[in-house]
Amino acid sequence: MKIALIAPPHIAVPPADYGGTELFVAQLAEGLQKTGAEVIVYANAESTVNVERRSLYKQSQWPIKNAEHALIRATNHESWAIQDAAKECDIIHVHSAHALTFSRFVDKPTVLTLHGPHDPKLSQFYGYFPEVYYVAISNSQCESETMPRIRTIYHGVDPSQYTFREQKQRYLSFIGRLALIKGAHLAIDVARQTGIPLKIAGDVQPQNREYYEKKIRPHIDGELIQYIGTADFKTKNELLSNSLAMLFPIQWREPFGLVMVEAMACGTPVLATPGGSVPEIVRDGISGYICRNVQQMVERVSNLDLNSNKVRHYVEENFSIDRMVKSYLQLYEDALRESRTQKVA
Questions:
Q1: Count of CA atoms in the C-beta half-sphere (13 A) of 97
Q2: CATH for 159-318, among 3.10.450.50, 3.30.310.50, 3.40.50.2000, 3.40.50.300?
Q3: Least reliable range by pLDDT among 184-193, 223-232, 248-257, 336-345
Q4: Which ranges constitute the DSSP H helices of 108-199?
Q5: Where in the chain is the domain with CATH 3.40.50.2000?
Q6: Which terminus in the chain has less CB density within 10 A, N or C?
Q7: What pLDDT sits at residue 345?
Q8: Is 302 helix (H, G, I), strand (E, B) or coil?
């Protein structure tokens, strides 16, 4: 089986720092190749994923400064990649909605992983492509969609790539976009009420600059509240593995939240508010706690009693790359079998 994974061209695969989708593509690609599948990743030329790579654009372009220019770049990249992949690949797996428009011109099964939140306009758009195989990344996300060919496959990580530390340092961590919906301001409230230092990592995208300047920056003092900027994998690993707990006080329906799994892979529990996928990812009392509000999060931080080894084991059992790869291989096989049946009919 030969599989094309077509990533957006804006960020390298895997990413240097920010880029959850690109990290997923890299892990899926290398995991698939280990099973004996042939894999081609279409991404920009800064990508280093250890499979065959093909590129139209040489460099990353992030953060996006002009949405129209970025869309033109993505459309050019994806149309070229789909045309190229259709010549020799059995499955075409795309990772952006607008890439679906080119599936009309190729006679190969197409898969789309839904990396973003539910959007009624996008769901209406997906209705024009009932033949596509859709992957939701949580049951919460899946339940919001009505496409006939959709199933849930959780993201996975390789726990061996994450540093496990049983003995933690006295600080809390927050990793994510510094945007209102991600709740970094609420994580700051937890730190201020508990007196436990908070280390924040994340990028400030142009549309969130006002939020950062008003809600985050005034509290950064380098002691109780520390901002370390964007975090590459090494920095993220160090930050999470030493942390007492990672705070995830989201204010939206999170589609998945890979950083929760990454924290738990380090043996670090997650304290999160119950939006979207959170009840599926966090096992209350085992890998962290689901908290209704800041006050409950403060109480949990003050009485952390979770076993780091059990937190790590929870990830190994439920969110491994092997499990994710096996599920995608089953999807690809189902798609190929249905395609062959339709052609015979």
A1: 16
A2: 3.40.50.2000
A3: 336-345
A4: 120-126, 139-142, 184-194
A5: 2-156+320-344, 159-318
A6: C
A7: 57
A8: helix
